[in-house]
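Friendly challenge for the regulars: who can give me the structure tokens for this chain first? No prize, just bragging rights.
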Amino acid sequence: MDVGNNLVRAQPKTPPTHGDTPVVIRAYKFDAEAPGNRGEEIAGANCNVTSVHFSAAVRTPVSLTVPLYGISTPTLTVMCAKPGMGSGSLVVSPFNKTTTDMISAGSSAGLAGLLLMGVIAAASDPSQHQYVYPIQIWITLKPQ
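First reply, four minutes later:
Bragging rights claimed.
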């Protein structure tokens, strides 16, 4: 897997970043009989990763470090293709990791803890939360 410094080209007038996170992108052959229609992994698919703030061209499998913009973290569009194997795309939305972590911590303390952390999460300022992408992005290549 390529884990080198895949440079992400920032667009003009991007907001300040709130750190970054690695995202692993993998491509799979379409298989109607496999769970999720995901068959064997396909190495060497060319992918374009784009958002309103940045873009990158990579080859699968890859670990790509992408910037985070807090509450303004945009969706990613990942489009991959490999000659003879087809193409596929996916729109990936960031999620509120702060709220997810609070709810998870509360659930380990039972129903009362879950309710308490839910109230705290609802009362907190979302603009101060951490927004991240899923760690793994799987693209299924369908024949054209």
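Helices lie at 97-107, 110-123. The mean pLDDT is 82. Your move, everyone else.
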